[in-house]
Design a protein that fits this description.
Helix content is 62%, strand content 0%. It is mainly α and 188 residues long.
Length: 188
């Protein structure tokens, strides 16, 4: 859930025509409350963060939904505010999923930031000579980003993985090598 489209809509209105409580401003403030709550909960256990979401964030989300449903059809869908409202309405089920689990992030920024280097590197990899080489590159990148996402230092993970992988014989052995399961065992 992002406030940026609402801020952009607010900025497109001439200052002389703005009122104290513009619709876009109200959305931006409510969304800001969600981000402030998540910032407060940074470092908390998922269970504690979930309690905050149930007690506080769900009420803010309810206010956003009420404002959305009351304003959705009263604003031109081609205006910046109308586009923001219709996008919010269309994405609503996905946007409120964070309320269901204390480990899920408020937005997709962590995932987007994780794939950004890969997206930027596409031009460099444009001329990979073989499909096998492209698959190997994608697999290695996936391993590194999965290690990062699980707070495992990628170099240490890869050293431990390459030492233990030849010994893996069963599916359980391979699952023990996943970043969230592997024992690094004092790897430098």
């Amino acid at each position: 859930m992002r406030a940026a489209p609402f801020i952009k809509a607010e900025e497109s209105i001439p200052k002389a025509a703005r009122t104290l409580e513009q619709i876009a401003t109200r959305f931006a403030r409510l969304i800001g409350k969600l981000y402030r709550a998540e910032a407060l909960a940074e470092g908390w256990t998922p269970q504690r963060r979930q309690r905050l979401r149930v007690r506080y964030s769900a009420a803010v989300v309810s206010k956003i939904e009420h404002l959305l449903l009351t304003r959705l059809h009263s604003v031109s869908p081609t205006s910046l505010l109308g586009e923001a409202l219709h996008y919010l309405h269309g994405q609503w089920p996905k946007l409120v999923r964070f309320l269901q689990n204390g480990t899920w992030p408020l937005d997709s920024n962590p995932g987007e930031n994780a794939i950004r280097p890969f997206v930027l590197g596409r031009r460099s990899w444009l001329f990979v000579d073989t499909v096998g080489g492209a698959n190997a590159s994608a697999n290695l990148y996936s391993l590194i980003e999965t290690a990062k996402a699980n707070n495992v230092e990628p170099y240490q993970y890869l050293v431990a993985l390459f030492k233990k992988l030849p010994l893996a014989q069963t599916v359980d052995d391979c699952e023990a090598l996943l970043p969230w399961n592997i024992e690094l065992g004092g790897v430098p």
